[in-house]
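Let's practice the habit of predicting before peeking. Look at the sequence and jot down your guess about where helices and strands might fall. Then scroll down.
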Amino acid sequence: MRSREPSNDDEAVIRRVLDGDVDAFETLVDRYTGHVLRVVARNVPRARGAEVAHEVFVAAYVSLAGYAATHPFEHWLTRIALRCCSDFWRREYRERDRSGEALPEDELPPAEAGEPLDDRELLEWALGGLELEDRQVLTLVYFEGLSVKESAQLLEWTESKVKVRAHRARGRLRERIERALPEARKRP
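Done guessing? Here is the structure:
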């Protein structure tokens, strides 16, 4: 996600939606689906990404009247996406507590028959083992390329916390990957 000034086009579409043209919201969905899926994919299991992305757009539609054009719509939508990811994990852990189900084992994902684990799968596995806040800060700063200031605004943290958390999260990610590499490389 690259920082942009509030788009007049986005604002015009939002005004149309708020004036009763609910079908105009589809324009925003089409425009930002890829962005939302990228943010969500790095914060929830791949199999649940589409479900959470759908929740993001539902939440955005319901809250659209609260959007203030002081920041780009994309930033506002990213904040909603991060909150939906947090909500997903809260629900997930609450359900596991009720069912007595154990948390998943910390093991590498299964490789396809005869295929070695690729770098993307290894990265997704390593990210999946980090705390939610670590995944979120890494996603914004390193994968989306946002500045520390922009990331701090989206996460509602101080810039210092973003710097420290990103540095520590990067170290934890590196440790997980280094521990997994000998095992990942042994696969056929």
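How did you do? The domain at 1-103 is CATH 1.10.1740.10 (Rna Polymerase Sigma Factor; Chain: A).
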